[in-house]
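Extended Data, panel c. Modelled sequence:
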Amino acid sequence: MTFLKRAASVAAVAALAATTALTASAETTKLRIQTHYAPETVSGKLAAQYIEDIQTMSGGEIEVEMFYSSSVVKSVETFDAASTGILDCDMTGGGYQTGKNSAFQFVGDIMGGYETPYQQLSWLYFGGGKEAAAPLYNKYGMELIGWWVYGQESFASSKPIEKVADFKDWKFRSPPGMETKIFEKLGASPIVMDFTEIFTALETGIIDGADASGLANNVGLGLYDIVKYANFPGFHSMPSDHLACNKAVFDAMPESHQRIMKVAMEALALRTALTFEKKNAEAAAQLREQGVTLSQWAPEELAKFRAAAQATWPEFADTPEAKALVDAHLTYLGQLGLVSE
């Protein structure tokens, strides 16, 4: 074989090897993800940005079929739908799963704990949160990818909610879990219902108010078109919305796709917290102009709520996973000076 033929042969083999390697590396991950947020809400738009980010950063190798407004299964059923393969990932929140294991309360909404989304995210990434949460998610065949926390929620109400005494006999939509216990102790009548049913329940008078979301999301849901009272800034609830995926599906993904999804969640978390700082302030100004009454709670009333909330935590630390999470929270809250004396 002449030198030129040999060189051509070597070049051909090298080209074939490169093509094969390129083909092998171009793996595709196809995911079906559901969120409870409507696409027109602030959080719905942020979720859409996350999907666009991971698809773009993967060069199109991650493909997502996104379902908004819990259009496949009810919000509370999303986690199980992902763990059983009806969906691949759950983009709602751990609070919906408290009936499965009370530990989910402490990855969903600790209530009366952290004051800002930055503190809560800091616990997850730097206060032992992910390490404490991983066994809980894995127990049910799921992998926690990350959180996005929009900050304190505000109520929507048909009457003023200015102090703890105003909760007496107040019928309001509540998510399942610890919140119902806290507000029952404070005299309210919480009614657990799906996120998607809130508007109709307010409109028909089944409930007097709702714990739905942050002020800007509530505006997007149209709640203040029906009722004319809210509280701002919020204080009672700061849910950690999560992205959790079927563990077998996630483990089978290329490491690069896993990394893209987790790092993009950190970007979503920061974008969410910053966005709602601005959007909630804008929503508050807009609502005042429209005649909606916004109440800011006095420090002594906030202290009453925090005391009731923190007194309820031990009631939900009734599984090994829950106790590990409560201990992790209390340690970190102690470092931040946020645990009641």
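The chain has two domains: 30-151+239-278, 154-234+293-336. This feature is highlighted in the accompanying rendering.
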